[in-house]
Amino acid sequence: MRVFVTGGTGFIGSGVVRALLAAGYEVRALVRPGADMRNLAGLDIEIAPGDITVSASLDKAIAGCEAVIHTAALYSFWVRDRGLIHHVNVDGTKNVIEAAMRTEVKRIVYTSSVAALAVPTGQTTVTEDTPIDPHAIIGAYKRSKYDAEQLALRYAHDGVPVVIVNPTFPVGPRDIKPTPTGRTILDFLNRRMPAYVETGMNVVAVEDVAQGHVIALEKGRVGERYILGGVNMRMAELLQLLSDITAIPAPRMKLPYHPVLALAYLNAAWCRMTGATPRMTPDTIRMSRHYMYYDPSKAIRELGLPQTPPRTALERAVAWFRANGYARHQ
Question: What CATH code is carried by the domain that includes residue 81?
Answer without folding.
Answer: 3.40.50.720
